[in-house]
Amino acid sequence: YETMVRAEVGDDVLGDDPTVQRLQDHVADLLGKDEALYVPSGTMANQIAVACQTRPGQQLILEADAHIYHYEAGAPAALAGVQTLLVAGDGGALTWERVAAALPPDDVHFPAPALVCLENTHNRGGGRILPQDRVTDVAAGAHARGLRVHLDGARLWNAHVATGLTPADLCAPVDTVSVCFSKDLGARVGSCLGGDRAVMAEARRWRKRLGGGMRQSGLLAAACLHALEHHLPLLATDHAHARRVADELDNPHLSVDHPVDTNIVMVDVAAPADGAALVAHLESRGIRTLALGARRVRLIPNLGVSAGDMDQVLTALNAFPGA
Q1: What is the pTM of this model?
Q2: H/E stretch holding 242
């Protein structure tokens, strides 16, 4: 909060907030992109990327469990006017072979594909890190077909810390990338969209159109800069806390059936109990979680969770009585 209070501010709608400019320049450097644009949310960053790289009536290709499809309120259709094509991946990871097989023929009866979106790490995939060769494979195939590629990198920082690859390495194959500051990095508000100068010029217009232009937003950008400078290494602790759940879960009614790459754990509840029962059980012990489907509960250790907190989480999980 002190960093926010001390922030030097201006009017970012007019492009003269110095703290926002510092954040955007820093993020552009980290991502290896020409420019970055600060926006209020990850959803806005993703939807600006979609709108800037498609035209109404074209086709957007998404992995079947993509955040953009499931949790962004139908925005690709409502805002960009594009049709969505879903392609099944492995833990969220696509291959170009699968994408190419799903693309429609080049025929006037079908929408023309324009943009492929990837997600790293993958939320519904349990925080899985996309294998970098898959990212390169899909991007190369898409570019050869004249398609653009966007990366929903809301949790790209987690992939960076877990793999040791730089953010620039992780998103080098793609045209645009979104990154979030308000999740595990602990900043209160905001995301950035990175890309080439031509796309970012259009992105500024879309940010204004969607109501994302803010005035003295250097107050918020200062928190994002602080998070990047001080909180990135702490993500490794979140990853370790998540792995503890998979390693130490000891309850016949609960299971974790996916590798825990980063900080997300999907706990499956055996019938006849359900996810709502587990959420209520944990809530009664002061632990807030989120049900994803009838029998799946998502746990995300974050900056505010200590090792002692994780002891309590594991005790509560192992005490869940089932039905």
Answers
A1: 0.95
A2: helix 235-248
